[in-house]
């Protein structure tokens, strides 16, 4: 089955993204596929590459990156949610004259149309967080 | 791409939670794909529909104006949970967009009929 995941919760503040991460791994292990992961609202903090986790805790944004690159999963951070929360890529950094970009490897910044498209391409869309 | 019916259930009041705006933006984005889309306002989400929203002192955009864009995208009628209005003593004539009143039974049926549900 083809799943798409919508993540609304910031890592560490909410359980949502850690649960979503486990769900994604479990689905892949059972030979399902993840069509797209869409980070929306506070969920965009999951794509902050500057996240530093304590040594005995999971680095959730890093885990998403690893999952994306190792299984070639499309990951999108909603542009309107991301920019106002300081999650930016090189293009946006240049456009808004910011000193650095911090988007995680494997995640792209794009619009809500990508979430609608994912809905049409997937068998199930599951939202994590509220 | 397959045709799908999408149901967006809106439960959050405006201004207190950023997803209130996100949910409406998702509805507007969906219209580009020409899918069947229904919007249901329930719980504290019904506060979003109040016609008299004044945001001058809030430093935030008027949420009602964003909602007013829905008919321009052919996203009408929107549906509102009658019980949620009654619980909050909100009258139908105080609302934007002339929403259609529905009860929990209808919401249940809409949920059963939809291919994808977003609940914000």
Description:
The complex is a heterodimer of chains A (130) and B (120). Chain A contains five helices and five strands, in the order βαβαβααβαβ. By secondary structure, chain A is of the alpha/beta class. Chain A has a five-stranded parallel beta sheet with strand order 4-3-2-1-5, sandwiched between helices. In chain A, β1, α1 and β2 (33-39) form a beta-alpha-beta unit. Chain A is globular. The relative contact order of chain A is 0.26. Chain B is α/β, with parallel strands linked by helices and 120 residues long. Chain B has one domain (5-52, 61-119): 3-Layer(aba) Sandwich (Hypothetical Protein Ychn, Chain: A), CATH 3.40.1260.10. Helix content of chain B is 29%, strand content 18%. Chain B contains four helices and five strands; from the N terminus they run βαβαβαβαβ. Chain B has a five-stranded parallel beta sheet, sandwiched between helices. In chain B, α1 links the parallel β1 (5-10) and β2. The longest helix of chain B has 13 residues, at 19-31. The two termini of chain B are 25 Å apart. The mean pLDDT of chain B is 94. The A-B interface holds A 6, 8, 40-42, 78, 80-81, 111-113, 115-117, 119-121, 125, 127, 130 and B 1-4, 6, 18-19, 22, 25-26, 29-30, 32-33, 35, 116, 118-120.
Question: What are the main properties of this structure?
Answer:
heterodimer; A: 130 residues; alpha/beta; Hypothetical Protein Ychn, Chain: A; 5-stranded parallel beta sheet; 36% helix; globular; B: 120 residues; 4 helices
Secondary-structure blueprint:
The complex is a heterodimer of chains A (130) and B (120).
Chain A lengths: L1 E6 L8 H14 L3 E7 L20 H12 L2 E5 H6 L5 H6 L11 E4 L2 H9 L2 E5 L2
Parallel strand pairs in A: 1-2, 1-5, 2-3, 3-4
Chain B lengths: L4 E6 L8 H13 L4 E6 L21 H6 L10 E3 H6 L12 E3 L1 H10 L2 E4 L1
Parallel strand pairs in B: 1-2, 1-5, 2-3, 3-4
The tally of domains of chain A stands at 1
The helix fraction of chain A, in percent, is: 25-40%
Which CATH C-level class of chain A is it?
A: Alpha Beta
Q: For the largest beta sheet of chain A, what order do the strands appear in spatially?
A: 4-3-2-1-5
Oligomer: heterodimer
Taking pLDDT < 50 over at least 5 consecutive residues as the criterion, the unreliable ranges of chain A are none
Which whole number gives the mean pLDDT of chain B?
Answer: 94
- CATH class (first level) name of chain B: Alpha Beta
Beta-strand segment tally of chain A: 5
Order of helices and strands of chain B: EHEHEHEHE
Sheet/helix structural class of chain B: alpha/beta
CATH topology of chain B: Hypothetical Protein Ychn, Chain: A
How many H/I helical runs of chain B?
4
Bulk shape of chain B = globular
Number of strands of chain B: 5
Biggest sheet record of chain B: 5 strands, parallel
